[in-house]
Amino acid sequence: MKSIKWRILIRVSAVLIVLFLIIQALDFNNFRNLAINSAKDKALTIALTVKSSLTSLMKLGQIQNRDIFLKSLEENKNVESVKIIRGIPIIKQFGEGRPYEKPTDEIEKMVLVTGKQLDRLEESINKVEYKIVIPYRAENECLQCHKAKVGDVLGAISITMDLTEIRKAALIPLFTTSFVMFIVFIFTAFMIFKFFKPYTDFFRKLKEGLDKAKEGDFSEKIEIDTKDEASLVANAFNEMTQNLSKTLKTIQKKVSYLIGHSIKSTGNALKDSMMIIDELIKIYNFKRVIEKDTSKEEIYKRIRNILMERNIEKYSFYEIEDRHNKLRLVFKNGTENMWCSESILENPDLCRAKRTGMEVDSSEFACICPYFIECSEGIERKHNYHCIPVYVGGKVKNIIQFVYKDEKAQEEIPFIKSYLEEASPVLEAKALLDMLKEQSTVDELTGLYNRRFLEQLIPKLVSQTLRRKSTIGILMIDIDFFKQVNDEYGHDVGDKVLKEIANIIKNSIRESDLAIRYGGEEFMVLLMDVNPEKAVEIAEKIRKRIENKIIAVGSITLRKTASIGVSIFPIDSDQFWQCIKFADVALYKAKEEGRNRVVRFRKEMWESEEY
Fold first, then answer.
1. DSSP 8-state assignment for residue 372
2. Chain-centre distance of CA 422, in angstroms?
3. In this structure, how many other beta carbons lie within 10 angstroms of the beta carbon of residue 392?
């Protein structure tokens, strides 16, 4: 794009050139017309002189001297030739005369025929020739010597003039004018450059500043000292960019404080501000959404969605289960196996991020945590990792692990941390609710579910089992002669016995099965999707393990046995509580038969119609 300076110069130059050409054309035409008119006047003067002179010579009888007279006329400046041409009346009266008195071209012939004055201008590079032919008509005084009528064309005078010198004289002022115009043009161009340079520089800097501002760069300053409107505009632009830059930096600083980190600058202040505000809005919306979620698992899913949206390909997310002191892998991505050794699941303190409560970054020390899978001997190390502990309720509750090859994924970590910081108080609230709920449904001494949990679970459990057309094995377990333990050794030893037997029960069943402290020394086990024979087999396994368990409390060692009753829902009854009663009946049957045994409920054991 051409600058305004060049556009002004081109336009002014075009106007000057057109003006110059018009003036030169007008001057040349004026000089030409002046020269022609001067030559014409001179020719007319000569023609009148010749006419008068020939008349005098004829009256004096000296007409034979006319050639001398005509030759003398040719000596006048610019006169090339002067000749007399005889018309028809003269030829008839005196004959054709000398050869040069005959018409030699069309213009001379036309004048003799029409009796009208004609002229012709012939121009070439080297010569300018002007020819005028003037007719002589018969007048009263001519009738004395010529046999003609008034008005007849007696002849004509042909005068040829060389105007080359006149043209040369006319070109000198034209060239002078051209030179003066050229000087004016150069001076005008110089004045344009000199006068418009501050303004063209101003427009150039203003354009550059606006282009940079469009890209978010407000560093351009315009300096101009014209002391007019341009200077005011420059000062206003400088003030505007300064205020914009200051405001955007303030916004970035405050929003960075809100989200807990700064966004990497791209050099575009507008783009950076929009990015950081958009990120703040996303984090705010994220917090609003998870506050309405009903469980931690829903929040975990949303965190995973955030990781996917940020194009993080490899990661793991863990939860620390305080009750069991274990590390649970909630979700992962990027490999079929875990990114860390499975030993950290059983012993969370092996995880450096959990143990120290600080971020762990392998970019500083390659194998700072030796339990990263690629830090094992014989495995090629291809990835870096960055582990972040998430505090919930003042202690590490979750750990998120990023696995990456290049720095691009690491750049996303500050963003993810912002989401985790917003999720932390919500997770704490959910964890507190879960704890309160668990406390209301879990037996504090044994860690098994309590009877309240059973009452809440049964409606849902029954409907699912009937819908699947499956079965539930119900085991009622009672510790034999437990009251003697409390009476002889005290309640502390009794509590220890309950805990040990609860552990035996938990370790003897599947994770999908449920162990419940039904009351006092009585326990219940719900075996999901089990057939009657298998239920009895599991009950027998529990009985044997209790019988073989040596319980040590200080210097005291004990062995206990248990009686177990078994029923199957809905085989024994389509009423769940009735099946529980049937298992209880089988339990008391086992005690009647001598304790330390498993008894499967049979219909003949129940004599009443109602329960």
1. B
2. 28
3. 22
* Per-residue pLDDT at 434: 63
Class of domain 442-605: alpha beta
- CATH number for domain 306-430, candidates 3.40.50.300, 3.30.450.40, 3.50.30.10, 3.40.50.720: 3.30.450.40
Residue range 373-388: mean pLDDT, rounded: 82
Sign of the Cα torsion 57, 62, 65, 66 reads positive
In single-letter form, the type of residue at position 389 comes to P
- Collapse the DSSP code of 341 into the 3-class scheme (helix H, G, I; strand E, B; otherwise coil) and give the result: coil
Selected catalytic residue, list 141, 380, 521, 547: 521
Question: How far is the C-alpha of 34 from the C-alpha of 208, rounded, in Å?
Answer: 58
CA distance 205 to 3: 11
The tens digit of pLDDT for each residue in 431-471 reads 666 655 555 678 888 888 888 888 888 888 888 888 888 89
Whether 521 is a known active-site residue: answer yes
Q: Which tokens in the block code for residue 278?
A: 């958009």
Q: Are 596 and 603 in contact (CB under 8 A)?
A: no
Give the gyration radius of the chain's Cα atoms: 62
- Domain 4-168 CATH class label: alpha beta
Strands ordered across the beta sheet of 562-569: 514-519, 522-528, 472-479, 562-569, 598-600
Structure tokens at 254: 């405050």
DSSP state of 506: H
CA distance 67 to 53: 12
Rounded Cα–Cα distance for residues 189 and 11 (Å): 11
Side chain identity, residue 174: L
Beta 550-553 vs 522-528: how paired, if at all? unpaired
Q: How many CB atoms lie within 10 A of CB 473?
A: 28
Q: How far is CA 506 from the centre of its chain?
A: 58
Cβ-based neighbours of 233, under 8 Å, separated by 6 or more: 202, 206
Q: Indicate the pLDDT class of residue 611, thresholds 50, 70 and 90.
A: very low
